[in-house]
Write a structure and sequence with these properties.
Number of domains: 1
Order of helices and strands: HHHHHHH
Strand content: under 5%
Length: 182
């Protein structure tokens, strides 16, 4: 199999016109974005933003880092499972050209979980304010990383991406804190 791939690559390099090679490269890039980046980015955004309110509401309502961690863990894992199944089930990839539902579902589900765990894990620190400040710093970096990824792969102008993600995330964070103080 490896020998066949090497021969195909060699023949392609030798006989494929430059414009056809560029078209193939663009097609590969587009497929990578549709199969992995877009679902993964949607998952990262969902996990990072949708878990802010429950985690910070739990933190400020209970003042208990262990309970907050468990709530954050369950919100992150639950959201990851939900987003993964949703992405895999809603489109088989044939009509849209978005690629394998399994690959898209895994990208979305894993990144959703990662996005939520980022600011849940600091609550393993037993001191409330140390955990909360660490979680807020992580949220800051998560939201800016999402804006960077949107700019880099989805070609969204950076400041527009930043305003959408950072403003939206800040509003959800504030809602969680206010509800937790309620």
């Amino acid at each position: 199999e490896q020998g066949h791939e090497e021969i195909a690559t060699m023949l392609g390099d030798r006989h494929l016109p430059e414009d056809a090679r560029e078209t193939e490269d663009e097609t590969k890039k587009r497929q990578f974005i549709l199969t992995y980046v877009q679902p993964g980015l949607a998952g990262l955004m969902d996990g990072s933003v949708s878990t802010l309110a429950p985690i910070f509401a739990a933190a400020f309502a209970t003042g208990d880092t262990w309970s907050t961690f468990l709530i954050g863990l369950s919100a992150s894992v639950g959201a990851g499972i939900s987003m993964g199944f949703t992405e895999a089930a809603h489109d088989d990839g044939k009509l849209s050209g978005r690629g394998s539902p399994l690959k898209r579902g895994l990208a979305s589900g894993i990144m959703t979980t990662v996005g939520g765990l980022g600011h849940a894990l600091p609550y393993l620190i037993p001191h409330f304010w140390t955990a909360t400040i660490t979680a807020i710093v992580i949220v800051f970096f998560e939201l800016w990383a999402i804006a960077f990824i949107q700019n880099r792969y989805m070609e969204t102008p950076f400041w527009r991406a930043a305003m959408q993600v950072v403003l939206g995330g800040s509003l959800v964070l504030a809602a969680g804190v206010l509800i937790g103080h309620g």
